[in-house]
Amino acid sequence: MAEELNAVIVSIEYRLVPKVYFPEQIHDVIRATKYFLQPEVLHKYSVDPGRIGVSGDSAGGNLAAALGQQFNQDANLKNKLKVQALIYPVLQALDFNTPSYQQNVNTPILPRYVMVKYWVDYFHGNYDFVQAMVVNNHTSLDVEEAAALRAHLNWTSLLPASITKNYKPVMQTTGNTRIVQEIPQLLDARSAPLIADQKVLRHLPKTYILTCEHDVLRDDGIMYAKRLESAGVEVTLDHFEDGFHGCMIFTSWPTNFSVGIRTRNSYIKWLDQNL
């Protein structure tokens, strides 16, 4: 990336679970980015202040999206980012039964059960809640706190028919209200950028979102692209029918998969044209 884009690449070594839990990771990336954006630091590394983007894949895509939204709400930081590029990002923990979660429930690398456990780990929550969350008991109709937010990820309207197919929403009438009471972070837009208000999305920078067909997170990315477009943001949704979660890292022998090379090249090409 550095060579092909003639760009300075800064990788933020944010602290991980179990050393720290949400929202400390977001605080880390915001602090590091603010530091880097100081004129004297940009000058030190010969960085054009009008050519700065933020990017991340998977959990890093979550943090990149959250950082973009946080910057957008800070008058001093608005318009500091030219682009954001999100690679199969994690964007919500309210619905674990989107079509992609149902279709790829046991798909290797990131099956649904593992993804739900990762969320519980991130929030330092109770593993006893995992099974209930798998069937959306944490955002059932009797969980009032979740009611308004569910509209932001109503996939029956946000996803095209080619994606929704014959899948049915899983909306429990009654569930476990204790889950959100004990883990309110589930409903925090800093952890779930997909549920942010439309006014927060309006002035986000030009966006690239890469999604893969064989990935539980596919629909998170597609829904976010749709919501950003509705807010007036210029979005490129780059979908790979033969892609799987994490495929971009498989680009060197003996795991130099075609789809890994194609996703990487497509991503870098977009950055080259837009950064």
Automatic annotation (TrEMBL):
Residues 1-129, 187-248 form the Alpha/beta hydrolase fold-3 domain. The active site is at 58. The keyword Hydrolase applies. Pfam families: Abhydrolase_3. Keywords: Hydrolase. InterPro entries: AB_hydrolase_3, AB_hydrolase_fold, GDXG_lipolytic_enzyme, Lipase_GDXG_put_SER_AS. It comes from the Eukaryota. GO terms for molecular function: hydrolase activity. Belongs to the 'GDXG' lipolytic enzyme family. This is Neutral cholesterol ester hydrolase 1 isoform X2. It comes from Neophocaena asiaeorientalis asiaeorientalis (Yangtze finless porpoise).
